[in-house]
Write a structure and sequence with these properties.
Structural class: alpha/beta
Order of helices and strands: EHEHEHEHEHEEEHEHH
Shape: globular
CATH superfamily: NAD(P)-binding Rossmann-like Domain
Helix content: 25-40%
Number of helices: 8
Distance between the termini: 37 Å
CATH class: Alpha Beta
Bound molecules: ligand L4XM7KOE, NADPH dihydro-nicotinamide-adenine-dinucleotide phosphate
Radius of gyration: 20 Å
CATH architecture: 3-Layer(aba) Sandwich
CATH topology: Rossmann fold
Strand content: 5-15%
Largest sheet: 7 strands, parallel
């Protein structure tokens, strides 16, 4: 009997020969995305302002057998954006993927927000994303195509306390739709958004007093969505915004509210821990001894506790610490 194998797109070398720039790739969601992409064969360039964080992440990836390079970049500077993309194309001959992940904001009631404060956050998140998209298009993708994923922030129902970021992220989502239409004809460029809800990342160090009141997402859960949209598995998907929020933005309480169906004590949604989890039980290889403990989360105490609980859930327990998963 002859067998015809099914030709699935999900293979270990999914991103072989691809060169992908991840902004903010030294920490949090960006770092996890860089790990995922490198483990699937991509050459990953991670870029941000603080070079030490980038070097640590690149070293982690190289120790695991991946290809990763670092570049200093402030996404708010359009000149630097062009220089970084040009340098990548000069060295590798291409830039097939771009993940606009760098971003952030501060919390402030709208009534207290100054025009400068509003502009700073719009400049970082909206202008920064535009700067990189434009540089990628002008330098390489306009002629050769490519795939772009913009990491935004759940802003479906507004973001109380973060007016500036909500406006900027909504701008990114709309810009993404326009670019999908305008740039699709340029060799099939695809561009999409991932909108994380509350995720357990190192980024939460800037929100130290936050006490988790909902089932938070993991870095890996955001990264996995980015990887899917970048990949040929999403070859007919462009111009979309993919929320990664456990449906919290659909509830009345929302991501930023109090108790929801998705609270950490009762949630039955099994978390994906990704590469962090894969480090478990791997043993202390000689070459990784003394290296940063990549499985540790650099976040405020309540978040670390929650993360530890999720790890238990993945290993057969439940998010609330008892019994097995009902999934
Ligand atoms: C119901 C309770 C719910 C609680 C839920 C809380 C948790 C929500 C979590 C949401 C999930 C999101 C997570 C993340 O995004 S992770 C990423 C984490 N990292 C960051 O967010 C840091 C990003 N910040 C920055 O990069 C910079 O601070 C920023 C770009 C925002 C500003 O940098 P810049 O250098 O431009 O700033 P300047 O010092 O030049 O100031 C410019 C104006 O902005 C005002 N400003 C700046 N920082 C603050 C601040 N912390 N508070 C108030 N105002 C601020 C500053 O005063 C300047 O304005 P003026 O000239 O008018 O003074
Ligand atoms: N954690 C969460 O709950 C959520 C996060 N997000 C968004 O996801 C993205 C990743 O965040 P997360 O991983 O959580 O947090 P991190 O703080 O770990 O990541 C933010 C990254 O952006 C980089 N960055 C910030 N400003 C600039 C700049 N001007 N130029 C270049 N790089 C910059 C930072 O590096 P450096 O300082 O070295 O430049 C850092 O690596 C952000 O856009 C964030 O707003 C969205 C929803 C929820």
């Amino acid at each position: 009997m002859s067998m015809i194998g099914y030709n699935s797109v999900f293979k270990k070398d999914l991103f072989k020969d691809q060169v992908i720039l991840v902004t903010g790739g030294g920490t949090g969601i960006g770092r996890c995305t860089a790990h995922e992409l490198a483990s699937l064969g991509a050459t990953v360039i991670i870029a941000a302002r603080k070079i030490d964080q980038l070097i640590n992440t690149a070293r982690e990836i190289e120790l695991l057998g991946g290809k990763c390079e670092t570049m200093a970049l402030n996404i708010r500077d359009p000149k630097q954006a062009v220089e970084v993309v040009q340098a990548i194309v000069a060295k590798h001959g291409k830039l097939t993927g771009l993940v606009n992940n760098a971003g952030g904001q501060f919390r402030s009631p709208a009534s207290k927000l100054s025009p400068n404060g509003f502009a700073a956050v719009v400049n970082l998140n909206l202008m920064g994303t535009f700067n990189l998209c434009k540089a990628a298009f002008d330098t390489y993708m306009g002629e050769h195509g490519g795939s772009i994923v913009n990491v935004t922030l759940d802003c479906r129902n507004g973001i109380p306390g973060m007016l500036h970021s909500g406006a900027a992220r909504a701008g990114v989502i709309n810009m993404t739709k326009t670019l999908a239409i305008e740039w699709g004809p340029f060799n099939g460029i695809r561009i999409n958004c991932v909108s994380p809800g509350m995720m357990m990342t190192s980024g939460l160090k800037t929100y130290p007093e936050h006490n988790p009141s909902s089932r938070m997402g993991t870095e890996s859960e955001a990264a996995a969505a980015v990887v899917f949209l970048l990949s040929p598995a999403a070859s007919y998907i462009t111009g979309i915004n993919l929320p990664v929020d456990g449906a919290s933005s659909l509830t009345c309480a929302g991501t930023y509210g109090t108790e929801t169906l998705f609270n950490p004590k009762t949630s039955l949604m099994k978390p994906y821990i990704g590469w962090l989890q894969q480090q478990e039980g791997g043993g202390e290889e000689e070459e990784t001894k003394g290296q940063p403990a990549v499985k540790e989360l650099d976040a405020p105490e309540p978040i670390i506790h929650l993360y530890e609980r999720y790890k238990g859930f993945v290993n057969g327990g439940s998010a609330n610490g008892g019994g097995g998963s009902k999934l």
